[in-house]
Amino acid sequence: MTDPSSDTTPFFSDYVEGEETAEAGAESERPEEEEPASGVSNVRAVLTVGVLCLVNLLNYMDRFTVAGVLPDIEKYFKINDGTSGLLQTVFICSYMFLAPLFGYLGDRYNRKLIMCVGISFWSVVTLASSYTPKDHFWALLLTRGLVGVGEASYSTIAPTIIADLFVKEKRTRMLTVFYFAIPVGSGLGYIVGSRVDNLAGDWHWALRVTPALGLLAVFLLIFVVKEPLRGAIEARPEHTLPRTSWVADMHALCKNPSFMLSTMGFTAVAFVTGSLALWAPAFLFRAAVFNGEREPCTGNSCGNDESLYFGIITCVTGVVGVAMGVEISRRLKRWTPRADPLVCAAGLLLAAPFLYLSIVCAQGSTIATYVFIFLGNTFLSMNWAIVADILLYVVVPTRRSTAEAFQIVLSHLLGDAGSPYLIGVVSDCLKREESYMWSFRSLQLSLLICSFIAVGGGAFFLATAVFIEKDRLLAENYAPSDDAPIVVPKRGRSTKVPVSSVLI
């Protein structure tokens, strides 16, 4: 500090003798504001979750816009059910195979930058898909496949950012808000797609809404979101979490029964939701034609009222189902630490009979069909936030992006990557003749597969409940091995050997 009697003291100084000591004492008495361990302020953390929710909503909105105008696309390109199912399959396959790459990058590099690049690419490709000419269906397939790049860059990374900003109950609440965007975005995809199609009289315009909103989301990511420190909010003072190789990460994940079994249960959820997401509006449209409630599609636009109704149901049941699942799990944890997998199992086992009834009753009562779809979707939505929370608390922070990617690959590979195409192929095989009756009947019978898959998913979540408590404690008390390999020279080359083998 400057000596007030020296020649270097400013002439117009506010210094008064005795004030310095008083001010120093006052500063020592003030409580220091601790910076959050994540490196992100509480306000910025909440805003970050809001931006991530917006991007998640846009992703699912774009994904299901195609399903909302599927009858128009089938008529425009003159394709059958099996070929229509490829639209969802190529997207999921691209998304699925790219997820491990982004999971690897997300555990090692700047996650904010990865998301910005991916979403910008997704917006451009989605816009390009809206200009597909009539004789080039392959171009629409190609662009829909490339859309998976943006989704993979985001879905594997966003939950891990939330995990690095919040812990325990606050993390669960934020993940609940984040996963509200899945059903709401899906429903908005049907609603916006069908309404824009009806207003413009051309399904191409339905695919031009989300790209503009995607670029807005990139702007918000750049100026609002701040990259948190990985695992710092959970760091324990006795040790730090070391980064291990991808092979070691995968080996540890495969030996984690709670993670593997919950992933298989979520695979069943992906199979059912993927099938219904693409085919439910088309099935409801065919049911209305079969029952004589509306005329067959003859003009340029088929009229997508069923997509609008299904979109509204998806929004409402998604919000109700996610909130109901989280709240039931929270209350049930007072009696058992196995509440999360038990609630997921109950959701799937309750959804199965209602989905079955909604498909069977479609030929007799439209009102009953919508009621049973409402109940089935509500129970099916109970597990969205809970499954994500299970992954985050049974996997250590340095492996979470890899775990997210692995779960995405497995659940989509065995779930919704093939289920829309499978349902379409089975429908074509069951169709005995080209008629409105058989178009409805064949799709009705093929969709019954979903109910039985849901029962299998419930069984996997029941198995998860057996291991969940042990695996959670292992993740919370994880410590690196004292016998971790170190590098020592061997004949002019470096090699890894256990520490114990070189200690005397």
Describe the structure.
The chain is mainly alpha-helical and 504 residues long. 69% of the residues lie in helices and 2% in strands. The protein is built from 19 helices and two strands. The protein has a two-stranded antiparallel sheet with strand order 1-2. Strand 1 (485-490) and strand 2 form a beta hairpin. Helix 2 runs parallel beside helix 8, helix 5 runs antiparallel to helix 6 and helix 17 (419-430) crosses helix 18. The longest helix has 34 residues, at 257-290.
Summary, kept brief:
It is built from 19 helices and 2 strands. It is mainly α.
What are the salient characteristics of this protein?
disordered C terminus; two-stranded antiparallel ribbon; 504 residues; globular; mainly alpha
Task: Give the SSE string.
Answer: HHHHHHHHHHHHHHHHHHHEE
Biggest beta sheet summary: 2 strands, antiparallel
Measured distance between first and last alpha carbons: 53 Å
Runs in which pLDDT lies below 50 for 5 or more consecutive residues are: 1-33, 482-492, 494-504
Helicity, in percent?
A: 55-70%
Based on secondary structure, the structural category is mainly alpha
Mean of residue pLDDT values? 79
Strand residue percentage: under 5%
> How many β-strand stretches?
2
Mind telling me the C-alpha Rg? 27 Å
Question: What is the overall shape?
Answer: globular
Q: Trace the largest sheet across and list its strands.
A: 1-2
The tally of helices reads 19
